[in-house]
Amino acid sequence: GAVVSQHPSRVICKSGTSVKIECRSLDFQATTMFWYRQFPKQSLMLMATSNEGSKATYEQGVEKDKFLINHASLTLSTLTVTSAHPEDSSFYICSASSGGASHEQFFGPGTRLTVL
Amino acid sequence: AQSVSQHNHHVILSEAASLELGCNYSYGGTVNLFWYVQYPGQHLQLLLKYFSGDPLVKGIKGFEAEFIKSKFSFNLRKPSVQWSDTAEYFCAVRGYSTLTFGKGTMLLVSP
């Protein structure tokens, strides 16, 4: 199947700093990318959906100014957590689809963010 | 809004035992249904999916799931589990456009 990578796999930062997480589709063009957040023992919660070249669509309750998403190319999307706080500590997972929201999504390995 | 409920948070089985993981969803329209697996330290992988047609769906590694529309269920089954099936299993439903996941079931298979 298609491969999606995330970088970094783990990041620890100080409160108030910004952190950028990259999501790449390695062997296919991802017209749509999704960002999820997973709390311990909870399900994946969709944060936003982004289509290449357009603004991301955020789910209700997700602050778009705090979680900046850029999908500038068909193989790369970035999530920037701005002015991170300890409550932003979580596991962030991206997925990518080549044909829009109705096609199969391929998931990245996730990024563990810890904000001190 | 769509939602997904997985019945068990943890399941412990011995090798060769049969497995059934429950999944119920709520959504008023046509749905696509999925089971994903996450092995320790690895990313989510698709086990099987149902879009339409035969409600009994066969996936990879001997897994199957049955869509019962009247019960809003999509239970995952495997007749004989192996130690290598130890993983977390997520049921997911897609209604209009977005995937909604259940909370997951952690399966531990003892040798």
Written account of the structure:
The complex is a heterodimer of chains A (116) and B (111). Chain A is mainly beta. Chain A has strands at residues 4-7, 10-13, 19-25, 32-38, 44-51, 57-58, 67-73, 76-81, 90-97, 106-107, 111-115. In chain A, strands 2, 4, 5, 6, 9, 10 and 11 form a seven-stranded mixed β-sheet that branches. In chain A, strands 1-3-8-7 form a four-stranded antiparallel β-sheet, with no helix packed on it. Chain A starts with a strand and ends with a strand. The mean pLDDT of chain A is 91. Chain B is an all-beta fold and 111 residues long. In chain B, strands 2, 5, 6, 10, 11 and 12 form a six-stranded mixed β-sheet that branches. Chain B is globular, with a radius of gyration of 13 Å. The chains are: A mainly beta (116), B mainly beta (111). At the A-B interface, strand 5 of A face strand 6 and strand 11 of B.
Protein chains sharing the most extensive interface? A-B, 21 and 20 residues
Order of helices and strands of chain A: EEEEEEEEEEE
**Mean pLDDT of chain B, as a whole number?**
92
Averaged pLDDT of chain A = 91
> What structural class is derived from the secondary structure elements of chain A?
mainly beta
The biggest sheet of chain A amounts to: 7 strands, mixed
Shape of chain A: globular
Taken as a percent bin, the fraction of beta residues of chain B is over 45%
Briefly note the structural class of the backbone of chain B: mainly beta
Q: Poorly predicted ranges of chain A (pLDDT <50, ≥5 residues)?
A: none
**Residue share in helices of chain A?**
under 10%
Shape of chain B: globular
Oligomer: heterodimer
Q: What low-confidence regions of chain B span 5 or more consecutive residues with pLDDT below 50? A: none
Number of strands of chain A: 11
Termini distance of chain A? Answer: 37 Å
**Which radius of gyration of chain B do the C-alpha atoms yield?**
13 Å
Amount of beta strand of chain A:
over 45%
**For the CA atoms, what is the radius of gyration of chain A?**
13 Å
Number of helices of chain A: 0
> How would a textbook summarize the main sheet of chain B?
6 strands, mixed
